[in-house]
Design brief:
Blueprint (H helix, E strand, L loop, with lengths): L1 E2 L12 E5 L8 E5 L2 E3 L7 E5 L6 E6 L8 E10 L8 E7 L21 E7 L11 E6 L8 E4 L9 E8 L4 E7 L7 E7 L2 H5 L5 E7 L7 E11 L1
Antiparallel strand pairs: 1-3, 2-16, 3-6, 4-5, 5-16, 6-15, 7-12, 7-16, 8-9, 8-15, 9-10, 10-11, 12-13, 13-14
């Protein structure tokens, strides 16, 4: 485990809590397992959760923690696989286990059994418990087998870099997930569901970040950029 200091951008008047335009400076990230920062396949200076290696598990958490009773919006560009290789996927996770949290490889996508937690998974491989090989789901306490909700992704996630936006509206306990290509394509709502973060994760400030895993199939799985904005 590598423990760094402050994130790229601390909180400011605009509510920006986390702002990595790239990962040339990983300051403010706790890197676990196979997670590293460096040159990616499609973009330099990425957060690489897994490499082109079987049965890897990687996780990265920000040293800036999030108040689960407050609303936030986070946006991140992701590259999952290259040259026809992909598996198993990654997840954006809000968790209360701690900075050393790490889950299972393969279909566990690096977050299985992390608890307490709420995860938004981006799954690119069809295990026996998956509906298909290209879906988005929301899971609680690392339960990859029975997510709260699952929906087919509106774009092929293993094909090219794609952008995800996860918004949490605290007053209504509503979690929304949108996807688009970062070239200006239309943003599409993928999931809208009720999630009570303080009840599920706890009232203490939560850790936020990413987890990923490979299994018998594999791929480099990168976060290219990441921002998180908090609102009261």
């Amino acid at each position: 485990m590598v423990l760094a200091g402050s994130p790229s951008a601390a909180a400011n008047k605009s509510g920006v809590l986390i702002n990595y335009v790239n990962f040339d400076n990983p300051e403010g990230l706790v890197l676990n397992g196979s997670a590293i920062t460096g040159k990616g396949n499609r973009s330099a200076h990425v957060l690489r959760l897994t490499g082109n290696v079987h049965h890897q598990t990687g996780a990265a958490w920000s040293s800036v923690r999030v108040d689960t009773s407050q609303s936030f919006t986070t946006t991140f560009d992701v590259s999952l696989g290259n040259n026809g290789m992909y598996a198993d996927g990654i997840a954006f996770v809000v968790q209360g286990e701690g900075p050393g949290a790490s889950g299972w490889d393969g279909g566990g996508m690096g977050y299985r059994n992390i608890a307490p937690s709420v995860a938004v998974e981006f799954d690119t491989y069809q295990n026996v418990f998956d509906p298909d090989d290209n879906h988005v789901a929301v899971a609680v306490n690392g339960d990859v087998f029975e997510p709260l909700v699952s929906h087919p992704a509106p774009l092929r996630m293993s094909k090219a870099i794609f952008r995800n936006t996860v918004g949490y509206d605290a007053p209504s306990n509503t979690l929304r997930v949108w996807q688009q290509r970062p070239d200006g394509s239309t943003r599409r709502l993928v999931i809208e569901t009720t999630v009570d973060l303080p009840e599920l994760v706890g009232s203490a400030p939560a850790y936020v970040g990413f987890a990923g895993g490979t299994g018998s199939a594999l791929a480099p799985q990168d976060v290219v950029k990441w921002t998180l904005v908090g609102t009261s």
